[in-house]
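INFO  loader      accepted 1 record
INFO  loader      residues=374
INFO  predictor   begin
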Amino acid sequence: MNDGTRFAVFVGIVLGLWTGMHLFLLWRLWELPLMAGAGIRRWALLLAAVGWLSYPLGRLLVHSRSFPWAPAVELAGAIWMGVLFFAVVALLVVDLPTGFGRLLPAWSIHLRLAAVALALFLSAAALVQGLRAPCVRELELPLPGLPRERDGLVLVHLSDLHLGSLLGRRWLAERMRQVDSLRPDLLVITGDVLDGDLTAVEPLLPLLRQLHAPLGVWAVTGNHEFYAGLERSVALLKRAGFHVLRDQWEEAAPGLILAGVDDLTARRQFGLPDHPLEGAFKGRPQGATLFLCHSPLQVQRASELGAGLMLSGHTHAGQIWPFGYLVRLSYPYLAGSFRVGGMELVVSRGTGTWGPRMRLFHRSEILRITLRAA
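INFO  predictor   done
INFO  writer      dumping tokens
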């Protein structure tokens, strides 16, 4: 299957799910008292059609750059995506135990009304949480092999910025002020710097070039760099002044090795070989090894190859509860810190958001990690 066919299949699946969610919502609301009357139902059909069009149309308008209000349309569509998700989940929670109203017909309407009210409440809470600035989470971790003179080195970890039409100049400037206040010795970014539209990120290059740390700014690609065009995305990251690690290692300082690979999730999606770790670790000198990998995959192998600390992102910790339960099926290390063999794995919840500017229960985050000589 070539890239064009694979992409067409992916788009078809996404649009099928998107359409199915809208049809399910209409079906479960159709017989509620608030939907009584032909006029109300016509409006419901119209609003459902507008909702279905909102996000795809917003993305198309943003890419075409022919409509000045395109980012607003995309933002509205993204928020509707989150509201729709909460509504479908809440309705399923009350419908599945009651056999979609057949087991408790007298309670069915009341339960569905309660589910709609709960979905609206959760949507509002998630929107407030998603619009808040990322919190700073501080960790202190031993790194085997770290030279004594590097004890106390401060590493700042960003991931999943998703820069583009929704997270733009003002948001990035605020994040840079946060990073500067943390006074990093080393700054690492584990993929998805951009959301998918290179032309929306290129004007941000002067700002991105201001990111700095004494031992450099290091990055690896994420799946969204693949979607935007891998080579063009890497060129943009290099123009921003980042050291991009692509299935290779580099020495950031004597005794401190950084290894990194192109995203493992995207490699699978594009049918590329997904066992690049051996090459990334091969021939490195003695010292502490810090491994950057966008997706928290092949974790045990990274530990076996000698990584002392692995930093990842990609999962967003599910971003919108309870979506995390589905994400965990593919990525068991959803978010947080884990001990795997002799290696510490840290998976970021992400600094930005993808799609809806929403998060439920857990804010976006920036990690400030103090490394200790083991």
